[in-house]
Design a protein that fits this description.
This protein has 271 residues and is mainly alpha-helical. Helices cover 61% and strands 7% of the residues. A hairpin with a 5-residue loop joins strand 1 (19-21) and strand 2 (27-29).
Length: 271
């Protein structure tokens, strides 16, 4: 009986957890604060890049690095303008030399990377590259890392409660399997389709404000879909792509044109 009492306690903890609202007005479940996610990401970023740096796979083409930093720097300047609290983030972007990897990512706090495989296989224009990096920055602005970590933590808490309760139950094996599957899926697909739509909306606007043509969002995804041939690019494993994504982005482009057409000097964040 004492084991069963754990379940209401766990449910109470989860139900009383503070919820936050994303920049688009969406309610977010948070067990991990944005600050905790930023701290964890800072450490993870170093651990991820350190062995690659030793192998000489970080920023080893000055021209490519300069291009990526210029585009990304313009996006960051607009991100800071729209979200002033990010001025204190330790923004960073690195180019990882991996000609087969078609991917890019941004951790909490603006810790970014893009692989040479995306640049070589997709061959994005600067406008399209801005859509890639704008989308990644949007994940950070919307606290998607903290949200993902929160889901993983909730899964772990649930698994503990189920395991304890199941010790007296004939159905424990099936229940535990379900909880483990949910936790595994959260790891394998860290960005939900809802988060992807949110990053699309925020990213295309960010790129337009930075002076990049919003029509490039749709053409980028056309190229991304073709890049892997019969094998989908790695990008799709963490960025699930709904079938209507290109049409949605095409529909958003006209609404973003006023930002793009403003003839103002776009500052570049020094990376």
């Amino acid at each position: 009986m004492k084991h069963i009492l754990l379940i209401p306690i766990v449910l109470f903890i989860l139900s009383t957890t503070a919820c936050t609202t994303s920049p688009t007005g969406r309610s977010q479940f948070m067990l991990v604060s944005p600050e905790q996610a930023i701290s964890a990401s800072k450490e993870a970023y170093v651990q991820t890049l350190k062995p690659l740096d030793k192998e000489g796979k970080i920023d080893n083409d000055p021209a490519v690095t300069k291009r990526v930093k210029l585009v990304t720097g313009r996006l960051i300047s607009q991100a800071i303008k729209q979200y002033p609290h990010t001025r204190h983030w330790e923004w960073s972007v690195k180019v990882i030399d991996d000609p087969e990897m078609v991917n890019a990512w941004c951790m909490a706090g603006g810790k970014m990377a893009i692989y040479t495989g995306l640049l070589k296989k997709v061959k994005p224009t600067d406008d399209e590259l801005a859509q890639v990096m704008g989308h990644e920055i949007a994940h950070a602005l919307a606290n998607h890392t903290a949200e993902k970590m929160s889901v993983q933590m909730a899964s772990q808490i649930g698994m503990v409660a189920v395991a304890v309760a199941a010790s007296d139950s004939d159905y424990g094996g099936a229940a535990l399997t379900g909880a483990a599957l949910a936790a595994s899926m959260a790891v394998e697909l860290p960005n939900s389709r809802t988060a992807e739509r949110e990053a699309d909306l925020m990213g295309i606007e960010l790129a337009a404000r930075a002076g990049y043509n919003p029509n490039a969002a749709a053409t980028l995804w056309e190229k991304m879909a073709k890049a892997g041939g019969s094998t989908p690019p790695e990008f799709f494993s963490t960025h699930p792509s709904p079938g209507n994504r290109q049409s949605t982005l095409r529909g958003l482009a006209p609404k973003m044109m006023p930002y793009y057409q403003q003839k103002i000097a776009r500052p570049v964040y020094p990376l």
